[in-house]
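User: My collaborator sent over this chain with a note saying "see what the structure looks like." That's all I know about it. Can you take a look?
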Amino acid sequence: MDHPTANAPAASAAPIERSLLQARLATLRGEYSAGQRLLAEAEARAATLREQLLRIGGAAQVLEELLAVDAHPPAAAVTAQA
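Assistant: Without extra context I'll predict from the sequence alone. Here is the result:
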């Protein structure tokens, strides 16, 4: 049978370990918070980049359509020029 306190830390070492654990926890919380900020910034940059790519793609499509119209003028325009 297991002793009820077999998994519990030793009472004599608890104050030192507790302060170390608290310090480490504070460090980890700070790192986690900083990581969340960096992730939010990266996601915002990604959203901005996606918007820019959509605008660039739209502008390129308009230019391609204009070039296609210029390459194949309507029949009436060809007849008028002749």
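A starting point for your reply to your collaborator: The two ends are 106 Å apart (CA to CA).
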